[in-house]
Amino acid sequence: MWRASDMLMSETSRNARFVSEFACHEEAIRAYVRRLIPSRSDCDDILQEVAMVLWEKFDEFHEGGNFRSWAFGFARYKVLSWIRDNGRSRLVLDSDVVALIADESVEEDSYLEMQRLAFRSCFEKLPSHQRSLMANAYRPDMKIQEVAAESGRSTAGFYQWLYRMRQMLLECVQRQLASEANP
Amino acid sequence: MSNDQKFQQNVQDYLEGRATPEQFLQLNEQLRSDPAARRAFREMLNLDSALMETTKEIPRETVEAEAAYHEESCPRTELEPQQQQVSASTIAKSGNRAWGSLILLIAASLLVVVGMLTWFAESPEFAIVEYAAGAQGLSAGMTLGAESHFIQTGTVQLVTRRGTRIVIEAPALFYFESAQRLQLKHGRLAADVPLEAHGFTVITPTGQAIDLGTKFGVDMPEAGEAEIHVFQGEVVAQSIEGGNLQNLRDSQAFRLQSAVGTPSSFRSGAFIQPGEVDSLSAALQAGQPKRSQLALQELRDDPNLIALLDFEDGQKQPGKYRSVQGRWPGSQAAEFVNVGDHMKLDVGGERLWSQLTLAAWVRLDHLGEPYHSLLHTDGWEDTKKGQVHWMVTRLTTMRLALRDNKLAPDERPNEGFPDSQTSVLPEQGRWVHLAAVYDADKKTVRFYFNGQFDSESRLSQAFPARLGPAQIGNWNTNDRTLSGRIDEMLILGRTMSDAEMEHLFAAGNPYR
Lengths: 183, 512
What we know:
The structure holds 2 protein chains of 2 kinds. By secondary structure, chain A is mostly helical. Chain A contains 8 helices and no strands. In chain A, helix 1 (4-34) packs across helix 3 (67-86). The N and C termini of chain A lie far apart (50 Å). By secondary structure, chain B is α+β, with helices and mostly antiparallel strands. Chain B has 2 domains: 127-264, Jelly Rolls, CATH 2.60.120; 284-508, Jelly Rolls. Chain B has helices spanning 3-15, 21-33, 35-56, 86-120, 277-285, 288-300, 498-508, and strands at residues 127-133, 143-144, 148-151, 155-160, 165-178, 181-192, 201-204, 207-220, 226-239, 245-249, 252-256, 262-264, 305-309, 319-320, 322-325, 332-336, 342-353, 355-364, 371-377, 388-393, 398-402, 406-407, 432-439, 444-449, 452-461, 465-472, 484-492. In chain B, a hairpin with a 4-residue loop joins strand 23 and strand 24 (444-449). Chain B is globular and about 90 Å long. Chain B: This is FecR protein. Chain B: The chain crosses the membrane at residues 102-121.
């Protein structure tokens, strides 16, 4: 039944509701996009575009619905158009492969979220200098050569170090989740 | 290099933006054809994304101290789960920021020692599982540290080191930051906090609740905003992004929205309380779900069955309501929260039913609305004699009203409609079984609570029952919100006997 108060409510709280929904799922949406896009900076750009579309279309989102899967739908579309538009000038994965990973990502969403949560405690267990070194390597404005130099390593050596750190973190995450599944 | 190593190297180079066209070719081929490779790829990219998130929060620091760094100072064992309290490393992080590179230098030289100490440290144990009713991965006696837990089904009761009792209902994703801080990413919990644990805090994606001596509940849906409900005592609620602190007292509820929050209607019954989980768990162990299934099968074979809504067939009935856990772990029920929430139903056709049994498992969140609709056929028109309205009234009685029926002259008036004698209130906050049996030939309405006969109302005028388009949880021309959940609604075109009703309740009862 239509009620004037509902209408007023939706007008005044739209902004707050959107911000709240988006904040709640931003990390998951970024991770979703990241799984499909080769570079971190492109991932951030696409996420911004996705946020804009979600904001524009938010009136079509039904309260009580699943914001995350609604958002994944738009993100998938944005990513595939980006792949199509950039496929000639940049190295990207084939769009059928990206679509496969996108679909399977949705099915595995809860597990992947658990991985990110487990990652947090694994990362916290690293010595602080290793954490800050990784943070520097992930800073968008930092050149990897400079981070490598600061760490006293060659660039190639630093890439190897990053490789090993990621493998180690991933193993920690997998161990943690396995121990939770089999108490 | 083995195939696996090559794949790993390709993924790492892809992550760094260093992959060559040949590597892309190999990645495409392997990802296209190998599900295990896709899984490994997703997990590594997921980790990369988590690193993006987490490292953003770390301020830029020079790493001069890294000259003292050797890879060997970070043995793999340091990354074993549960070796170090998250809070401890957080303090170390902020300490580094405050004291600068001098401390970093000292810290770096101490890292090996700290690593060893960490390795030998006891695992932090923040809480223990008291009862688990159908919650996969958690069982009574298990201790919980800082690791995250996702329960898809069931209900679990935990007690923290300081004695806070917490009941968490699936689906839920949560982890302890410490015995006093619980992160609830989504799910529904009720907490009973003793004096020693004052300050116990539940943190959700849209805000937090800090206890000041209390029993309270937090409802964090997968999509939307957290709600804090205070059953008793006092809680401070704060929305994210610096929202004002809001003091909540007995029977108050608050929705934690971004920056500002809004008062919300109090729904004490929406939470499974400490003390309820053991009887839910006992019923599971006694094989109640199976008995319930068999009883439902008998009903499905009943030639007089008009409708049986158990919400388990995956087909969502039209309407506006939430799907939540039903009486059994992982089962489904419909929840009505906001004014106007409803489920549409169209059964019984044009046919007139001289006998009718209505029964449902109901979990009422609170009473006090003028009417809580269990089932209201659309409209209330002169031309539709016998149309059915079934509800809980403001007097907390159950009512079965049929259009143009009249009470016998010697009946208690009750606003002119057949009402139960017993109040629905005593069982508030737990699943109750409500039923009404109508017989137009005998001119009687009989009410049942939890399988027990309550009372009979006699009529002087009784039309056959008329169903058709209807709403559960609301009425089409008025808001008659049913604040709560409905599981397993039965509409039968015959009367049920007392013995049958008792059997129906006993077979479907989720408690022992």
